[in-house]
Amino acid sequence: MADPQPQFSELDFLKKRLTSTERLLAVKQQQIDSLLEITRAVNNNMPITALSRIYENILRAHLGVTRVALYIKEVGDTWLCITPADLPIEVTNYDVQVKFSLFTFTTPVAAIKDDVLKDFEFLIPVSHKKEPIGFALIGPFGNEQSDTKEEKLKFIQTITNVIVVANESEKLVKTQIDQLVMQKELKLAGAMQNMLVPSVLPNNDRIEAAAFYKPHKNIGGDYYDFIHISEHEIGFCISDISGKGIAAAILMANFQANMRILLTRKQSFQQFIDVLNTKMLEITKGEKFITLFVGTYNYETRLLSYVNAGHNPSILQMNGEIQLLEIGCTILGMFEALPYINHGEVTLAPNALLVNFTDGLSEAVNNDGKLYDIEGIVAFMENNKELSLNEFNTKLLDHVIAFMQDTDFDDDITLLTMRFK
Fold this sequence. Notes:
Layout: H1 10-43, H2 48-62, E1 68-73, E2 79-83, H3 89-92, H4 96-99, E3 107-108, E4 122-128, E5 131-138, H5 149-196, E6 207-214, E7 222-230, E8 233-241, H6 245-263, H7 269-284, E9 290-298, E10 303-309, E11 314-318, E12 321-325, E13 328-329, E14 344-347, E15 352-357, H8 359-362, H9 373-384, H10 389-404, E16 413-420
Parallel strand pairs: 10-13
Antiparallel strand pairs: 1-2, 1-5, 3-4, 4-5, 6-16, 7-8, 8-9, 9-10, 10-14, 11-12, 11-15, 15-16
Helix pairs in contact: 1-2, 1-5, 2-5, 5-6, 6-7, 9-10
């Protein structure tokens, strides 16, 4: 006689359905708790390494994932695998930028066709503004049947996005903070640089001076100065320091301090330049250099003495003639011993006009690639020598801008003009 078939009552069916529902609710509650744990960790600004450990634990312990690899995009477009430590080296160093860049949706790893990834089942990409910022390799899943694979994948996609986007947000915040700090430093350096150049230049019965300075960016490498040496003698200079930004501003401050101290000492121009070069070399270590035109003028003798250290020649207009002041030496701050140091001397006639400038002015270029050059400055001087020096500087800059047409200045511009009455 055949065994009787077991009879299931409606009550048994309801009990079984209730058990299944309770199990599903428990799974969903576990997922909610996991998501809450990650959210709290993100809100507490935990580092990405700590977030990755939470992420890995949730996938392994709660979802039955047997293998995990999470890749995040770092600053500079490099990629880093942050979970876990026991992955094979070929997985941690995998070229995700090249191999995964075409995948924008969760994809079976089999579609990638790479034996290195044979222990994984799915690739989950995360993007921001259509740019990949993270990838997760997961699987295979365990045999837990409390939830379908599709449901697990949806949840893993959610927490992967939370982790990777949190890391991207932290990068953006750090970048913004770095930019704010840099802007503040640049502002302070710019203020320091403005303090280095004289705010007032003389305009009396013996000499008239005017200057214009415009850095190409927030902080430039140009510098000019005007120094009272004694009752009868003044010093002045214009220079171009290689580089820009904070480093140039610091070098400029050191340069000014040394130059002002050395220029007031009773020594020859050769000694002055030699010591100044040594001081600059100690600071620059040969990695930066300074071009310099420096001069002194004696009111009583009307003697102008100068050294041109690799700088653009200052242009002297006197008695209807033009003279380029080129005598001097090579650039400062690169060589332990300068191969030669010469100095020039000129006795100035009344109303002699001297134009000192940096190459941002003379190397201004127009649409045809033609330089304004020294010839342009000389031609302007011949036609405008009677102007006050403030007017002279303004009109010269306007003239250069008109010459440039649609092009822009690509360097600092400094102009120091002097009239010896």
